[in-house]
Amino acid sequence: MKKITLFLVLSILFDICVAQVGIGTVNPTAALDVQSSTGGLLAPRVALTNTLISAPVLNPQGGLLPAGTMVYNINTIADVSPGYYYWNGTLWVRMAAASTSNDWTLTGNAGTTAGTNFLGTTDATDLRIKTQNINRWNISNANNGQLQSYSRGTAGAPIYSFQTDTNTGLFSSGVDAVGLTTNGVEKLRVNNNGNVVIGSTMGAGGAKLHLTGAGNTIRVDNLSSINVNNNGIDNPVVKVNANGDFILEPSVTTQASNESSADTFLAAPFELSSSTGAFTSAVIHTVNITLTKPTLVEVVYWTGCSINRFSTFTPIISDDQARGYGVLVQETGATTGTAVDVSYCANSYSNGTTSGVNENFTLSGNGYVSLPAGNHTFTVTAFALGGTGGFGAQGYRIRFGNNALSRFQIIYHN
Predict the structure, then answer these.
(1) Containing domain of residue 38, as a range?
(2) Do residues 241 and 358 share a domain?
(3) By C-alpha distance, which of 306, 291, 270 is closest to 378?
(4) Spatial separation of the C-alpha atoms in residues 413 and 68, rounded to whole Å
(5) Is 85 in contact with 95 (CB distance < 8 Å)?
(6) Are 241 and 266 in a shared domain?
(7) Mean pLDDT by 10-residue block, N- to C-terminus, for the chain (414 residues)?
(8) Which residues lie below 8 Å from residue 37, measured CB to CB, with a gap of 6+?
């Protein structure tokens, strides 16, 4: 009988111990109830090596470590540091206190250090951003960390926009094409062929820069009429220089049309003569100019001429042979040093009777030459000859500038 009673008592005590365990209390309210006002609970202290490795913690029954196993790690290595961890069946998860947590919270974090604390990954994995569980943005680990959108967007809802102006921004109008939109309307497109289209009508574009829409124009303030190069009274024109730059040039008009410094370019007559009729020439006028920009230069000249026999005793030519005479205008640049013909004018005279008189004539002409900026010299060369073979027996004496109205003028066109 005593044996039976003892067995029943032990059985009841065993059932109580298995159901709840109380430490510091005789009335446990959980499977394990620890109560103390001065002591704490000391979890097993282990040295973890990595959150992905369960060891050194083992299942004493063998097999996999049960999920929910809790330890206190004392090691600092790899991705673990001292603190409480629990095994979730795959890896160790740190149980961090709110005051020392490294997690980002829904309401934001304080006390962060730029460069040390960040949103992102520490391995070669992209960072994905979703809303409503739909992929919206991806920060690529490759491609220099590209920010990639999962949508091309539209003109009315561009993929990159502004919180207070959602219909203005950047979107992809097609494969390898980018569009800019304002107020929900595409205004500029860069096509996959490299053409840039600006205006009210988008498309592939007919040139590298294509402005569309009736009445649309291009304005460049530096090419306006107040530019210092605009010295004319008409609307200026735009030219392209050697570098491909657009530059403002006045409309074709006279910028400077002063005559040479003297009232006449031959204040005193200049004479060419030959007793045999041989060819002779001489520079009879020189003008130096300096251009500050490329310029179209025009020369205009007019000079009187008188033709006589070489002998001053019987000045009238009577051998019926032609005497040729003329002027040649040339320009020589300081850089090239090469003379360029600008204008040429020539005439001839003959007389077969001794009853003639001394003859007076004029030579006039003009010419154009396009010159670069720099120093330039214009020369007027007179020439004369009296015929060929034996036709020059009487020779010639030809005077240039035999008139007070002789002129040489340079006109600048731009």
Answers:
(1) 2-98
(2) no
(3) 291
(4) 94
(5) yes
(6) no
(7) 50 56 83 85 93 94 93 94 94 75 78 87 91 94 90 93 94 91 92 87 80 78 60 61 72 49 70 89 91 88 88 79 90 85 89 66 89 92 75 78 81 79
(8) none
